[in-house]
Amino acid sequence: MAYTNVTVEEALWLLAEAGVASLNKMEPLAGGWANSNYLLTLDDDTKLVLKVWDERAPDEVEQILEHTCWLADHGVLTPAPLLLEGGVRFLVKDNQAWMLMPFVEGGWLPADSSSLYELGKAQAQMHEVPIHESIPTTFAIGFTLWDKLVKDAHKDGTMTPFLELLEKETHLLKQRIPDDLPSGIIHGDLYPDNVIGREGEVLALLDFEEICIESLAMDLVTTYVGFGWKDGLPVPELWDALLRGYESVRPLTEAEHAVLPDLHRFAVLAVAAWRYQQFVVRVPGTEHTERYLEMVSRLDKKLPF
Is the pTM for the entire model greater than 0.85? Predict the structure, then answer.
């Protein structure tokens, strides 16, 4: 979903700042709900992604890129932005951050057992990266967002059944989920449109916009929310593959295993809350208005853990 229309002239400007070959072809790229992505094919056949950050201020983007480069430097499969003139990773145009990234050949990672095994391994390896001091300690679409949505709705008189559910679940999950679970750097949004790969191979993890220090097991079940459901039901063999891959690098503790159902409930509601904020509060009246209900419908389904 591209929010910013990028012209050929603008693409040429950014390419010149990177000191690379000139543009041969430009086309929009699918994926991304909060930024605009374009595939650039250059005269020397190099392919790059031009990304415009539509919903992140430049100072936020600077921090995200600092964290992305930290992960890349520690072996995480994620592309680092190109250096531009002056040694910077992005330029500001109309108060938006514009940058260029290497294009990773491949499609979105498919949801099959061999692929999820490899994704579990890649996620566990990411979870072992040392913590960078500037990474935030708040999961942006978790309790902080839920509290804001509920508070604003009480103030404006716009409470809905979903927000009443969020208010109730906030109290319950804060009681059920221990504060001392193993934590570290999490992606927070490893959904299919954030993982490049092919069957049985992970090529790149993308878009660390929700990166923070949080429960590692919660991050794992968030990935299952994105990859492990088909036709409105959880697929046990996909969870088994994801978990086996993950535990081949980092075994879960007994405490983590015990709280997986609650962590999964939290992860489902976090996605629902983000969708509610995005498509009910911020941009109402589109075909996505009721997307949050897909997640709500998962709350009463039997899980494979």
Answer: yes
